[in-house]
């Protein structure tokens, strides 16, 4: 089941650089693990913003929440979620 | 080059059904042609709305505009566009 | 899987009363059938508005969209959807 | 009498973890007590947010305010309230 | 129990004057009856707008909705509702 | 002359409790003095928020501003003001 | 007593030109009469919009409402009102 | 050339009083000098807010920006600017 | 003097095609004349919208308003205006 | 390919002046280098705000993001991006 998730990141300006870099590294590892599992299907950078547009593929709302809640950058994020489903015009087999 | 395009459709309530159906059929054909060409990479329905989230893959802003401007449903659409680019965490080769 | 769905209805002022009444009757029957099936778990009227707050219990985003898309009043509705999941404080067994 | 209450929590990033955990524990106990009493009828997590959608069942606006005002997390919350009443299509006996 | 209700009226420009005047007269009679009963405690005109700020005194959300739903101008109104309760600083006995 | 004034209070979370309590006590005394003078006609708590809806009865905009500007909690408030006047449907003698 | 009043005009596109011109002429005469009386102190056009920023000088909210309500273009206007008072830095004698 | 400029001031709550008073005094002197020069034509206080509505009379956008940029309170202000021009109904000779 | 002007066009769906085409042709001629005069310095299409971002170079707000007010498509436009001036970092001689 | 980029700068009030000045100097040098390369085609100051309207000329969304992301003031900016393309009415050869 697919969800569009948009994440905007606001890291406090006074956070020490090394602390921020550690969180970002954890975030990258966490994200890439989920991408490899097929949970985090797509992630794109919004040009000009510290934000991304992502497509998650999960079994339930619960799973979506837990995945997002586990993001190392979660406390510094503004997140919007929109449930998606297959579009009647889609020719892509797997764009459930 | 990728763009997120969100389209919300508002067909006038007093449009004769056959006219509306014809436009929708044209829209579907138009969309599927572009999907087949790889221009319209993804199209998902937003659950609960007459709206979609799409990812376009085009060579330029100009091409994006012309493709959107040519949509049969274009006059009845509210469209938002966000330029995307590769996310540093992305493991997908082709998520330019 | 639960979704909060808020529906605001705007029936055109110039719609003949009998046509409007017929659609509303169909809407009521459609809603009550889904409530009986457990799909439409809760429906409350927002005091002072021609709007409702509803909780749907469905298997997927797809099912949610099809149920909403099938509402007789759908063309006259503004709909917002929020995916819900079990709250860690909830003591209700069935508030998945 | 039912009210939809949506609560979004913003705990200051610099609050010590133990302090935050204590408040969250108090909040959970407070909430579960009210749920047990039937005052806090439903509480669901909004997937992707530190927010909940709740349905309160109280005797008056006054009681609603006092219950919300007493939330340990109250100072860190943005709250919206909508008064609900029985929907003419509802088949649920107790969805006053 | 008190509610703040703000009503903004948008009568279609093409409504015949006599029809509009009839509805307005019905609205005035309906409002004054409720004021006399103490249900509609206060009604003030917002200077510069075809809108009012009102304070309703009712037994329940249900009663509030039915009173508002019965307004002759209801179909032409945008309504916002806020539940009120006694302010700890209030010296007025009856400002429940 | 009547004005609707809505005040939302945001006291900094790191303000010492005794300091906050002192300001709140001053605010209450200040408000009750104005209520006794008839300047502050009504004050109601908005259920679920640290906010109030008030009706002021003053001789001029100037007086309104000075009364609001003098509120001990003024620096911590977001205030909206709407000028009111007698509604043609009002049956209350003194709802000028 | 001074008020800032901003008026945006939306005349229906299908209004016959002569009807519109008549209303506009009445509006101009009405406005110039009030300007001559000193009630309508200032009126400026907002560059690029069919809107104006005006300063009214009236005795009460009531008078302001009646003056605005009497505008021939009133039914086609969106109006915002802000009560003004003398600024402590003002050196203009008459900027009450 | 006239501009409507609306300024809302948000002085940090933790700014020492004497520092704030000094900036406010500088602001007043700066404003009164420009008023005396005819650059700052009008300044009114918005009742209930730490904000003003002003009318500037300048030769160019550049001059407007430099005057605003030079305000001692500029770093603590939210400013909106609207270019004005003579209204066709204005009877005031100098309301260019 | 430069202004950023953003124009969004909403031509009524029921306007006969030939009428619309005539207005658009007039608009194009009008625009190109002003561009040739250097008044309308830049005009770009916003990709995906029937809207443009333009830079006007005029002597005064008055001139800007008259040029915009004269647009054949003016009645069907939503327009926002922002006064611009030279940026301290600009290396372009003529970006007054 | 052209993009409209609007940047609003909010430098923390407690940032030491010399630190701020250094960043601003770096920003100016960075901007002027890109302007010289033709990447940053236009930059104008919005009168009355610490904000600019810019036109970037880049090969891709990726390049745009990297240029913006590299701005010394980037962490203190709110940025909006709109993809532009040639307007059918434009007479300027190079307003691609």
Describe the protein's topology.
The structure is a homodecamer of 96-residue chains.
Chain A: E1 2-9, H1 17-37, E2 40-46, E3 51-57, H2 61-69, E4 77-86
Antiparallel strand pairs in A: 1-3, 1-4, 2-3
Task: Describe the model.
Ten copies of one chain form a homodecamer. With 96 residues, chain A is an alpha+beta fold. Chain A has two helices and four strands, in the order E-H-E-E-H-E. Strand 4 (77-86) of chain C pairs antiparallel with strand 2 of chain D.
What are the salient characteristics of this protein?
alpha+beta, homodecamer, 4-stranded antiparallel β-sheet, Alpha-Beta Plaits, elongated, 96 residues, 2 helices
**CATH architecture annotation of chain A:** 2-Layer Sandwich
Helix-strand makeup class of chain A? alpha+beta
Helices of chain A, by number, come to 2
Portion in beta strands of chain A: 25-35%
CATH topology of chain A: Alpha-Beta Plaits
* Oligomeric category: homodecamer
Concise overview:
The structure is a homodecamer of 96-residue chains. Helices cover 31% and strands 33% of the residues of chain A.
């Amino acid at each position: 089941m697919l969800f569009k998730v948009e994440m905007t990141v606001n890291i406090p300006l006074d956070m020490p650089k090394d602390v921020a870099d550690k969180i970002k590294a954890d975030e990258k590892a966490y994200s890439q693990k989920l991408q490899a599992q097929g949970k985090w299907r797509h992630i794109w950078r919004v040009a000009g913003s510290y934000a991304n547009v992502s497509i998650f593929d999960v079994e339930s709302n619960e799973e979506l929440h837990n995945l997002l809640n586990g993001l190392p950058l979660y406390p510094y994020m503004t997140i919007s979620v929109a449930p998606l489903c297959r579009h009647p015009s889609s020719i892509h087999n797997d764009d459930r």
